[in-house]
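Weekly modeling sync, notes
Attendees: S.R. (lead), two postdocs, one rotation student

Agenda item 3: backlog of single-chain predictions. S.R. asked that every request posted to the team notebook include the full sequence so nobody has to chase files. The rotation student volunteered to paste the first one in as an example of the format we agreed on. Action items at the bottom.

Example entry:
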Amino acid sequence: MAMIDQTKSTLTLSWLKTKLIHCESGVIIENTCSCSFEGIQSFIESIDHSSKTPAIYYQAFPEESADQFLDTLREELASKLGNIEFKSNQSLLDIVKAAALKMVIIDRSYLHPLNTINQLLNFLGYCNVSLILVGSRNKLKIAQVLSHPAISQWEQFTICDKSEA
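Predicted structure, as returned to the notebook:
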């Protein structure tokens, strides 16, 4: 079992690195487990620098607005940059550039309303930051995330093949 989990973690790490290199968005499907967590953590650790944050991993909260998400993103990136580079009057776009952010990974993304996802897609697209959504196929379908015009075109990486009950 540990070997299977390690293989899934390695495949996830490789898939995420490819998405980062090509600045592509995508969806990680994990139907019966939370297998992606270890791979995502390995990916974040492999690209993290002391003053740069090429990717950030975030767990969605129910009914969170885009403004709330972007405020949290600002705080996370500002804390990473520290007081030397961050000035409170800088725009989030400037902070994203200073942090060298290239990818946002949102786990449990099906908890976001579609208007929040649309606003995040618009802002992140403007910043040239890719978005990776993580969740079960059934929950993403119920939330209509997989039928979103842009997201339906993204590559889906399935980690667990078993269907949810």
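Discussion: group reviewed the output briefly. Residues 118 and 149 are 10 Å apart (CA to CA).
Action items: rotation student to repeat for the remaining queue; S.R. to check formatting next week.
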